[in-house]
Design goal:
Elements (H helix, E strand, L loop, with lengths): L1 H5 E8 L5 H16 L6 E3 L8 E9 L5 H4 L4 E9 L1 E2 L11 E2 L7 H10 L2 E5 L8 E2 L2 E2 H6 L9 E11 L5 E8 L5 H11 L4 E11 L2 E2 L6 H10 L1
Parallel strand pairs: 3-12
Antiparallel strand pairs: 1-3, 2-3, 4-11, 4-12, 5-6, 7-10, 8-9, 10-11, 12-13
Helix pairs in contact: 2-7
Length: 228
Amino acid sequence: MQEFLEGKTILVDKPYGWTSFDVVNKLRWHLKKKLNVKKIKVGHAGTLDPLATGLLIICTGKNTKLIESIMPGLKTYTGTFLVGKTTPSYDLETEFDNVLPTEHITPELLELAKQNLTGKINQIPPIFSAKQIDGKRAYELARAGKEIQMTPVSVEIHEFEIETSAFPEVYFKITCSKGTYIRSIAHDFGKLLHSGATLISLRRTNSGEFSVEGAPSPEKIINQIMEG
């Protein structure tokens, strides 16, 4: 238990519906209770959206100083785009607002869209994101119905694989630089198909040298803490 207080890096398999802060907050609360301390540093290296699952890297104690060096590592994601439907958030956080044609989409067009989103690209972050705009989170302004102008950011897609046997669902694997929004990739992928697309599932499998393989759930880690 002393390791947590002094400094420990924990790999967590974040469940669907949990925010990254939920994981940090719950682990911090149980650590403080078990160690009988008023304060312990706990942070995460790279946010995952609530609707995403997979690898979340948690650092405690002096290891929180490592967060800045962990975050720049390449990230790998798997998941599913649904082609022909869009939402304002580019994922299932909001309701579908458009149904678009897909009959014209050929294997060649799918391949071309994928190629156009590989390498160094500029993407516009979703308005339903944690990006700061004038001191407020973009999603707070979006939910309040405010007009938001998002600034394009430069990211790099190192690997982009698709599997289309269940079209209009498109399964993907993407390896990308820090700060890439997979929701924006889904949105841009749909536009390149002269249709639309929504991210309907997302899982982070790798971040830098770390892998989700074998990573326990938050509940399992909490049980280990309380029994330790």
